Amino acid sequence: MKHLASHFSYLSPLLFAGLLAFAFPAPSFAASPDKVEFKKEGKVVRTFSVDRLRAIALEQTLKVFEPHERRNRVYRVLPARAVFAEVFGRDWEKAREIVFTAIDGYQPSVPVKKFLHHEGYFAFANEDREPFTLTNKLQNNEVVPLGPLYLVWNNIGSKALLEAGASDMPYQIKTIELKMKEAFPNMIPPSGSSEQVQRGFEHFRRHCAACHTINGDGGGKAPELNYPESIVEYIKPEYLKRWILAPQTIRYNTMMPGLGEEISNREQVAAEIIAYLKAMSGAKRAPSENPADISR
Predict the structure, then answer these.
(1) ∠38-77-259 over CA atoms, to 5°?
(2) Fewer CB atoms inside 10 A, N or C side of the chain?
(3) What is the 3-state secondary structure (H, E, C) of 117-180?
(4) Whole-model pTM?
(5) Residues 176-208 as b or e (16 or more Cβ within 10 Å = b)
(6) Separation CA 31–CA 231 (nearest Å)
């Protein structure tokens, strides 16, 4: 899913994030709607249907706080660690990240250490056997299907997971890829960057990179923010911060969610994201360039 025609206002690059879902159909996955592809460093390892995954991992029911609906829900789930061990072997624990690609191009990268420290699960149905959907209050109450798989966490009682909100909770998962190295090398800030910029990078990875790209690295659901022109070069800082925190106050019915209300220091987080974007404006790379070939 890529760019619309360039007849929008000066906020158009971020506005696109709310319009893309309506502009083009989602990438086709109709031939195998219940199948999930597992990859390691770009190579397909296995492809499983949901029923096959249920045969290799112990099915459970799990109550979670559903940040998309701001209420508790009970799902039928499979333990993520058991699925990874069955598909990738125990070496999965030595990987750096796991990249999830959703049908609509949403692409979060979750550190392996998060799966080692917290209990993640793949939901595949509602416990009450109602349609496997949710009403996404973060995106104008859109009703969305969740299958084939939906990554959820045993977050009730966990301050860290509750504060993470909907980040690292992709639904409509069609591909799961093990990465032994940095998944998005073009997104790394310049060497010698300040601690504020480094924190901003981590915030961007957690809250923004699943949809947006920097120098071509990131999700495929929303626009590139750094190349060839950085978002900080043509949007006033006060509007950019407001867009990150509350995009609906700028564009009615935008599909871009604001930074999670559950984040206690969200004003600081927004400021650090902007500091990261400013630092990256001086480190532009064409999406096809290999950062290993570029001196910093």
Answers:
(1) 80
(2) C
(3) HCCEEEEEEECCCCCCEEEEHHHCCEEEECCCEEEEECCCCCHHHHHHCCCCCCCCEEEEEEEC
(4) 0.76
(5) bbbbeeebbebbbbeeebeeebbbbbebbbbbb
(6) 37
